[in-house]
Amino acid sequence: MSDPQSRLSWRQALLVALTSAAALAAHAQALPTVLIEPHPVDLTLPAEAVVEAVNQATLAAQVSGRVIEVHVDVGQAVRQGDLLMKIDAREASEAAAGAASQYVNARAHYQRTLSLRQQGFVSQAAVDKAKADLDAAQAARGQTTVGLGHATVRAPISGIVAERLTELGEMATPGKPLLTIHDPNGLRVTATIPQYRLSQMRSVGRARVEFPELGQWVDASSVTVLPTADAATHVSPVRVGLPAGMSGIVPGMHARVYFVLGHATKLTVPQAAVVRRGAVAAVYVEKEDGTLNLRQLRLGEAVGSGEIEVLAGLHAGERIVLDPVKAAVALKSGQRPGQ
Question: What predicted TM-score, i.e. pTM, was given to this entire model?
Answer without folding.
Answer: 0.59
